[in-house]
Design brief:
InterPro entries: Split_barrel_FMN-bd, Stress-Dev_Protein, YdaG_split_barrel_FMN-bd. This is General stress protein. It comes from Paracoccus contaminans. Residues 4-147 form the General stress protein FMN-binding split barrel domain. The chain has 157 residues and is of the alpha+beta class. It has a single domain, classed as Roll (Pnp Oxidase, Chain A). It contains five helices and eight strands; from the N terminus they run αββββαββααβαβ. The chain has helices at residues 3-11, 50-54, 87-93, 96-99, 129-142; strands at 16-21, 28-31, 33-35, 40-46, 60-67, 73-84, 111-125, 150-155. The protein is elongated.
Length: 157
């Protein structure tokens, strides 16, 4: 399996991360919707949020930091964040969680769809928490450095 495939496979278990963009670089928790074929992540936010305001004048450099619940993936994902008016994509990713934020549903005037076009991801993969504990214990017995998994970069450009 390629490193890109490994990234997307492990990313399936990740539901949210911390997203921020230039010029403020204030990271906030955001749920994402992955689109591996397009090399993009999608986000639903509201008008007036820092993220929506930051990209109102055009795309900005952005970062999305994630980790899987089981500790099998950690990643720093970089790309260009922009507003999108893709109503088909909004229909595709709209869900009960998103609807709880907007009184008029996906047609609410405050709904903003963001697209993070991916440039690269720095990725760390592990076999999870139990494997981590095993490797630490093994290193104490053998004196060898623990195997903490793989570290690689995926270029999406």
């Amino acid at each position: 399996m390629s490193e890109r495939d490994t990234f997307w496979k492990r990313f399936e278990d990740v539901r949210a991360g911390m997203l921020g963009c230039a010029p403020e670089w204030r990271l906030v928790p955001m749920s994402h919707y992955a689109d591996p074929e397009e090399g993009a992540l999608w986000f639903i936010t509201a008008a007036g949020t820092d993220l929506a305001e930051s990209v109102a004048a055009g795309p900005q450099k952005a970062v999305h930091a994630v980790s899987s619940q089981g500790g099998k993936l950690y990643a720093r994902i970089e790309g260009r964040l922009s507003l999108s008016d893709d109503r088909e994509k909004l229909d595709e990713i709209w869900n009960a969680v998103a609807s709880s934020w907007f009184e008029e549903g996906k047609r609410d005037d405050d709904v903003r769809l963001l697209r993070l076009s991916l440039d690269l991801a720095e990725v760390w993969t592990t076999d999870g928490a139990l494997s981590f504990l095993y490797e630490i214990a093994k290193s104490k017995v053998t004196g060898a450095k623990p195997d903490m998994g793989d570290h690689f970069t995926v270029d999406f450009t």
